[in-house]
Amino acid sequence: MHPMLNIAVRSARAAGKVILRAFEQLDKIEIESKGTNDFVTNVDISAELAIVETIQKSYPNHTIIGEECGLIEGKDSDYQWVIDPLDGTTNFVKGIPHFAVSIALKVKGKLDQAVIYDPIRGELFTASRGKGAQLNGFRIRVKQSKELNGAVLATGFPFKHKQHTNAYLEMFKTLFGKTSDMRRAGSAALDLAYVAAGRVDGYFEIGLKPWDTAAGELMVIEAGGLVTDFVGGHNHNNSGNIVASSPRLAKEILKDIRPHLGEALSK
Ligand code: IPD
Ligand code: CA
Ligand code: CA
Ligand code: CA
Predict the structure, then answer these.
(1) What integer is the mean pLDDT of 10-20?
(2) What is the CATH code for 152-265?
(3) 3-139, what's its fold?
(4) In whole angstroms, what is the distance from residue 161 CA to residue 89 CA?
(5) What are phi and psi of 66, to 5 degrees?
(6) What is the per-residue pLDDT across 198-251, written as a single tens digit (0 to 9) for each?
């Protein structure tokens, strides 16, 4: 295993421990609001601190961008860690056992290493640039689906961006009509990991942040999939609008959502 992936795994497991311990005593967690329907708990923050501490022990000069602590500028900006300590906070606070730790390392702006860890199931998804993607050490691959007929798509509702509800529902309606079924499980990182593992055929969501998708993007690409924005470009890191699936299925999804995008989502 690449030494930096090893540190990413160690960090994810440290955060996972913090999260699991707290999940057993949910009545003790402190919840604060960051914005509309956007919550953060003391556990998100403790988990992020555990990750930052583990990374900095080995790589004190690296730069870190975390959802909760923001940018920690290191002397070495070539190495940039992008972390979501707890992806699926809404599930976590409601006691729904589906959330993950997501950690990616970018080297000179390119995704290089990725970990998504589901502490409830003990599932560790990993990827290294050019080396494929694994689940608990076993190779995983994106389902090479060719059409929506028979496919199951994961998605996320735009609960933090309700101005997009109508456009989203139109996209949903069109895709739902053609697919076998849809899933809204509540963790973007796991949605992407599940695409990588071939558990779902594809995934789309509006308005994500870089820490939601960084690790999942490398995972999907290394597992033989495609990650794009809503118009087939690579602006998803800025727009937060993302489609992930086999290259063939992505074409179908993009074709079907195009009429509903409007100007705001055409990026
Ligand atoms: C959220 C989850 C959710 C997605 C949201 C994300 P958070 O992340 O990934 O599935 O629908 O858009 O913001 O805030 O729980 O880390
Ligand atoms: Ca959050
Ligand atoms: Ca997230
Ligand atoms: Ca989070």
Answers:
(1) 98
(2) 3.40.190.80
(3) Fructose-1,6-Bisphosphatase; Chain A, domain 1 (3.30.540)
(4) 16
(5) -120, 150
(6) 999 999 999 999 999 999 999 999 999 999 999 999 999 999 999 999 999 999
The span from the CA of 85 to the CA of 87, in Å, is 7
pLDDT given at position 255: 97
Percent of residues in the chain assigned helix, strand, coil, to nearest 5:
40, 30, 30
> Over 90: is that where the pLDDT of 86 sits?
yes
> Near ion ligand 2, which residues have CB within 5 Å?
89
Q: Which atom of ligand 1 is nearest to the CA of 211?
A: 16
Alpha-carbon span 170 to 173, nearest angstrom: 5
**Can you tell me the ipTM of this complex?**
0.98
pLDDT grade for 260, boundaries at 50, 70 and 90:
very high
DSSP 206: S
Domain boundaries of the chain, sorted by first residue = 3-139, 152-265
Q: Which of 174, 199, 171 is nearest to 185 (CA)?
A: 199
| Gap between the Cα atoms of 142 and 138, Å rounded | 14
Does the annotation list 67 as a binding residue?
yes
Do residues 127 and 196 make contact, with C-beta atoms less than 8 angstroms apart? Answer: yes
Pair type for strands 242-245 and 202-205: antiparallel
- Residue 128 CA: distances (Å) to CA of 158, 164, 190: 30, 34, 17
The yes-or-no verdict on residue 37 having pLDDT over 90 is no
Report the separation in Å between the CA atom of 101 and the middle of ligand 4, taken as the mean of its atom positions: 8
How confident is the model over 151-168, as a mean pLDDT?
Answer: 94
Atom of ligand 1 nearest to the CA of 99: 15
Tokens in use for 135? 């689940």
